[in-house]
Amino acid sequence: MPGSWFFDHRWIINAILFGQYDRLVNASLSFLQTDGEARVLQLSSVYGSLTSRLLERLPQGMDLTDVASQQLARVRSKCPGHALRLSRMNAECLGYADNAFDRIVVFFLFHEMPREARMRVRKEIARILRPGGRLIVSEYAEQPSHHCLFRFQAARWLLCRLEPFLADFWSEHHD
Known about the structure:
By secondary structure, the protein is of the alpha/beta class. The chain has one domain (2-142): Rossmann fold. It is built from 9 helices and 5 strands; from the N terminus they run H-H-H-E-H-E-H-E-E-H-E-H-H-H. It has helices at 2-7, 10-16, 21-32, 50-57, 69-78, 115-128, 148-151, 153-162, 166-171, and strands at 40-43, 62-66, 84-88, 101-107, 129-138. The chain has a 5-stranded parallel beta sheet. The termini are far apart. The mean pLDDT is 81.
């Protein structure tokens, strides 16, 4: 998938994340805090090194689900030799049992979907996360109006073309 190859370059990921890629990955990893036996789900494939870095910390392996088979194939090729259980599922209707996971990692997924879909995904996460489990979410915060990249109209236009649900995501109230 040509788009997949294009976006899976560090400088592109970093530009889309306003220069914060490493900081966000490191923060996500710091919140993982698992004893090595926790059942972990990464909800959707992501570009960059997050998945391989999660697997380095999880000798027991982890589950990863994505709606796109091309993304799952890309992840499989990037993480050979790891205990990575891949499943093709829509995050709005996951085939996992209730309370199946101790940790769920969501890295820049919610802005990729319409508001109604975001609500369904949140309900699914609440259903499959064990009581006392940990949900680790990295996502765009409020609209970065003062960020140097966002000040340029061409950059804003490109970002909104690449991320068609981002404006709605930014308009949604976040607690």
